[in-house]
Design goal:
Blueprint (H helix, E strand, L loop, with lengths): L12 H10 L5 E5 L6 H9 L3 E5 L1 H10 L7 H15 L9 H31 L6 H41 L6 H11 L8 H7 L4 E2 L2 E2 L3 E2 L3 E2 L5 H17 L1 H13 L4 H22 L7 H8 L1
Parallel strand pairs: 1-2
Antiparallel strand pairs: 3-6, 4-5
Helix pairs in contact: 5-6, 6-7, 7-9, 8-11, 9-10, 9-11, 10-11
């Protein structure tokens, strides 16, 4: 029966300061993750010593549906988020270090530039198919591709230097795993905050959206099992690409792929998802133990047993 008060603040330093003055030390702030729009406020409150949680917007969305909320306004969203925090008491949030926030920005820009380069490359190919195409237009596209490649090389160098400065040993351990490339390693370090954010490899697999999802009810409903895809799509895409290499050059992944695809006749994608999960499990173990990949680990383990 509480009366909820709603107020509006500018999402800038002045608004953050005004909001900070309105709350008490013991108050818990619950913020919905909204791309990069929530980061400034979250970091500001954390640096001010406030208690806060950053929650998944999908969780809030389904919580709102569970309460049969039909309308959607800023005020109603704020009340729903507050009620969600009161009921579920989500885990407290700590601001990632500055170098990780900068690494996130570099990798975001790198991904955007890669998309632009792919678009220009496809446009260049389609332009050549047209009889009597404009050579001037083609030269402009080529110059754009060269410029993007230049910037991508600069960003990759910055990413490499950042990881070397803060995670050199961790990066070296992960690089010993056959199948994992530098882009995937950098992404794993980023999303796990140096493999300190997750308590188990299962939590990391769930974050990547690679956890299996069974759909059945009683005896009449038995849907096909598939991965949940409730997670980072970019990381999932990178891991699938790594799995294509790992099934050939990583002994543990190769054995798993052959057992599922060749012996048990599982669909190709099912076997590939299993390989991607295997890669994540190996990466988590290597990163948390500080050891390097040993291709004969299973043989040694069986002999010791």
């Amino acid at each position: 029966d509480e009366v909820l008060e709603t107020r509006q603040f500018n999402n800038a330093i002045q608004g953050w300061q005004t909001f900070n003055e309105c709350i008490k030390e013991e108050d818990v702030c619950v913020i919905e993750a909204t791309g990069s729009y929530h980061v400034g406020l979250a970091v500001f409150l954390f640096e001010q010593g406030k208690i806060l949680s950053v929650v998944n917007p999908l969780s809030v969305k389904y919580f709102s549906r569970m309460n049969l909320k039909r309308a959607k306004t800023d005020k109603m969203d704020a009340c729903v988020i507050a009620q969600y925090g009161q009921i579920f008491k989500p885990a407290l949030w700590t601001a990632p270090p500055l170098h990780l926030r900068q690494l996130q920005q570099l990798m975001t820009v790198s991904a955007q530039l890669t998309k632009q380069k792919t678009a220009f490359t496809n446009q260049q190919k389609s332009l050549r198919l047209v009889p009597g195409y404009s050579k001037e237009a083609l030269e402009i596209i080529k110059s754009q591709i060269r410029e993007l490649e230049k910037h991508l090389q600069e960003i990759q160098c910055l990413i490499k230097n950042s990881i070397k400065a803060h995670y050199e040993e961790l990066e070296a351990s992960l690089r010993s795993i056959p199948g994992l490339g530098p882009k995937t390693i950098a992404t794993l370090i980023l999303v796990t905050e140096g493999f300190t954010k997750f308590n188990s490899y299962k939590a990391l697999i769930a974050y990547a959206g690679l956890a299996p999802r069974t759909y059945e009810s009683g005896v009449s409903v038995k849907g096909a099992s598939h991965i949940c895809k409730l997670g980072g799509s970019y990381l999932r895409k990178l891991l699938y690409q790594c799995a294509l290499s790992a099934k050939r050059f990583n002994p543990a992944c190769k054995e798993l792929f052959e057992r599922l695809y060749i012996e048990k006749k599982k669909p190709f994608k099912v076997a590939m998802i299993a390989v991607a999960n295997k890669l994540l499990k190996i990466a988590f173990t290597i990163a948390t133990t500080g050891q390097k990949f040993d291709p004969e680990y299973r043989i040694k383990f069986q002999l010791a047993k």
